[in-house]
């Protein structure tokens, strides 16, 4: 007589264990054979957030051991929540959220090897959030956090310029999430600046501006740094402000040239 028993359990590592136990029993009730087959099904995602910039393509990694034929990528909170529903070799367009239409794909050649990663093309601000890689046949899922950022290069202009001080303004448009602005001197030391002005546009992108007043010294170099910590993005712009001595030397040279010109002109008419 043969007895086949199927057990499903979850081990401490989070892997699903499928245990098939086959017992062969002699007609007299004596145990003749014991066989145990263990198969592990593991869904592997990313424990670290995935960072992408607006307009870039991004890969959300997910790997299954062993491979299956049906994979569903979802994002809770959307209606419908299906981002990519792959079943029996094709994408089910009718269930896909329209905001992701023609912007997602799986790697068909890699599916037999368990690679169920999803690629999103032309990333948008609205794509930021938590995604779930689902394998319906084993009721298992893996979550991945996508962080989307936008950056731009700051621009520095001279607002006020007198003999003693210079007021500099730094502005940068098109950031997400909201960044911070710092001023540094030529040696990399932070400068005390006024409060940063922040404006959020209808496209959810931020424009930031900051002003700093600096003294005119010899070989003054200043840096405006705009950075966003969650996306680990930094953009910088540098400016050189002539020192007071350089300005005086330039003025002296200009006056000297002017008087020489007047002197030569007077000799010409004599």
From TrEMBL:
Residues 55-145, 163-240 form the Ig-like domain. It is found in: Membrane. One of its GO terms (biological process) is T cell receptor signaling pathway. It holds the Pfam family V-set. GO terms for molecular function: signaling receptor binding. Keywords: Disulfide bond, Glycoprotein, Immunoglobulin domain, Membrane, Signal, Transmembrane, Transmembrane helix. Its main location: membrane. Residues 1-15 form the signal peptide. One of its GO terms (cellular component) is external side of plasma membrane. The keyword Glycoprotein applies. Belongs to the SKINT family. This is Ig-like domain-containing protein.
């Amino acid at each position: 007589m043969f007895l086949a028993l199927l057990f499903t359990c979850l081990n401490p590592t989070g892997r699903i264990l499928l245990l098939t136990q086959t017992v062969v029993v002699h007609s007299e009730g004596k145990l003749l054979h014991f066989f145990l087959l263990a198969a592990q099904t593991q869904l592997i995602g990313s424990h670290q957030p995935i960072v992408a910039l607006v307009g870039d393509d991004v890969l959300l990694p997910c790997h299954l051991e062993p491979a299956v034929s049906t994979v569903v990528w979802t994002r809770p909170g959307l209606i419908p929540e299906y981002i990519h529903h792959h079943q029996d070799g094709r994408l089910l367009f009718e269930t896909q959220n329209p905001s992701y239409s023609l912007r997602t794909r799986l790697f068909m050649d890699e599916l037999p090897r368990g690679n169920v990663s999803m690629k999103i093309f032309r990333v948008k601000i609205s794509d930021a959030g938590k995604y779930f890689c689902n394998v319906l046949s084993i009721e298992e899922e893996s979550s991945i956090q996508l962080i989307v950022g936008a950056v731009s290069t700051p621009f520095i202009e001279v607002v006020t310029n007198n003999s003693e001080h210079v007021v500099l303004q730094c502005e940068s448009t098109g950031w997400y999430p909201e960044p911070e602005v710092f001023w540094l001197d030529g040696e990399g030391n932070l400068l005390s600046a006024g409060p940063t002005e922040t404006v959020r546009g209808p496209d959810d992108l931020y424009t930031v501006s900051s002003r700093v007043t600096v003294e005119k010294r010899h070989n003054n170099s200043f840096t405006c740094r705009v950075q966003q910590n969650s996306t680990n993005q930094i953009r910088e712009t540098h400016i050189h402000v002539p020192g007071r001595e350089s300005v005086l030397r330039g003025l002296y040279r200009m006056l000297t040239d002017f008087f020489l010109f007047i002197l030569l002109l007077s000799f010409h008419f004599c």
